[in-house]
Amino acid sequence: MNGEDDDEYIGFATLPEQVHRKAVRKGFDFTLMVVGESGLGKSTLINSLFLSELYKDRELPSVNDLIQRTVSIEKKQLEIEEKGVRLKLTIVDTPGFNDTVNADDCHKALLEYVEQQFKQYFEDESGLNRRNIVDNRVHCCLYFISPYGHGLRQIDVETMKKLHHKVNIVPLLAKADILTKQELKAMKDRIMQEIEDNKIHVYEFPDCDSDEDEDFKQQDRELKASIPFAVVGCNTVVEAGGKKIRGRAYPWGIVEVDNPDHCDFVRLRQMLISTHMQDLKDVTSDVHYENYRATHIRTQMSGTQKERVKLKRDSAPNFEAVADTDKLLEQKDAEILRMQQMLAQMQEQLKVKDTSPQKPQQKHVNGLGKL
């Protein structure tokens, strides 16, 4: 840059660098909810995604526990650092989902938790200290679909319809290694058709900018075509062809977790962590939370208006009774005043008669006249 350009250089071009430094220094929060029945590999997949052991101490429930089990909420937090960037990850697990014979109310605990986080954030945002608000809102829900059925079950449809306006739903086809490629494609098509037929809104990938390179656009097309993600979770390292890979060994071969030709695990990790994590947070804040906030404010205003109408209605008879009483008292006071004035006039007249001179009385004798 020459001297003439230096004179015209203001300096605001460094704003992105300032924002980047501030964001890195503060760190990032991300909350992920995992929903699905027991045995679909939820814990294994989470451990595989974030290369951690969040569920190493978990004990498998017995048959009796499954029969009497109810949906509970378990939170686990993990701080990850990569190239100087810190991520505070919160995993919200839902053990007990669809494990009982009657699973009609499974979605209630999930819905209450999501709305409770919205409520807490709204109260913190409306409070006095807004500088250190902790964002515990659920940014993404990984919904595990069983591969043993013929698409979505009724519990899946009902749960996703209850949640899709509250949280970003990313459908996953669990344990995809039990299906052949033809079965996998047919299962994916059936699931997407049932999602469309039931008007379920799953997370939609944003469109690419026109200035993006062709490789990124191709990557975006592959991600969109992969919904629902067919996943295989595995933390076991096996040896194949002289190299160690993460996968599952079967008599007919090895399923590589990190191989895009075997499953969509790599695409899911790429979408969830590398490319769309911020967009998931933005949609949560700008769409789902704003919908909750608007509904909450309208409810509060409606409740306040109803209280005012009720108070006015309840108080109206009292106001009328008070007004009637005041009117009667005024009439009585006026009547008493008139009586007092009349009494005063009569007393004045009596006084005048008492003070006037009296004429002597004439005597008559036997009616014969004056004496």
Largest sheet: 6 strands, mixed
Q: How would you describe the shape?
A: elongated
Number of helices: 10
User: What's the alpha carbon Rg, rounded to whole Å?
Assistant: 42 Å
- The order of strands across the largest sheet is 2-3-1-4-5-6
Helix content: 40-55%
Indicate the mean pLDDT. 79
How many domain regions?
Answer: 1
Secondary-structure element string? HHEHHEEHEHEHHEEEEHH
Report the strand count. Answer: 9
CATH domain class: Alpha Beta
User: What portion of the residues fall into strands of 2 or more residues?
Assistant: 5-15%
The first-to-last residue Cα distance is 153 Å
CATH superfamily: P-loop containing nucleotide triphosphate hydrolases
Family: Belongs to the TRAFAC class TrmE-Era-EngA-EngB-Septin-like GTPase superfamily. Septin GTPase family.
Organism: Aplysia californica (California sea hare)
Keywords: GTP-binding, Nucleotide-binding
Protein name: Septin
3D structure, described in words:
- With 371 residues, the protein is an alpha/beta fold.
- It has one domain (14-275): P-loop containing nucleotide triphosphate hydrolases (Rossmann fold, 3-Layer(aba) Sandwich), CATH 3.40.50.
- 49% of the residues lie in helices and 15% in strands.
- The protein has ten helices and nine strands.
- The protein has helices spanning 3-8, 15-26, 42-50, 63-68, 106-126, 154-163, 181-197, 214-225, 265-275, 277-355; strands at 28-35, 74-82, 85-93, 140-145, 169-173, 229-230, 237-240, 243-250, 253-256.
- The protein has a six-stranded mixed β-sheet with strand order 2-3-1-4-5-6, with helices on both faces. It has a three-stranded antiparallel β-sheet with strand order 7-8-9, with no helix packed on it.
- Strand 4 (140-145), helix 6 and strand 5 form a beta-alpha-beta unit.
- It is elongated.
- The N and C termini lie far apart (153 Å).
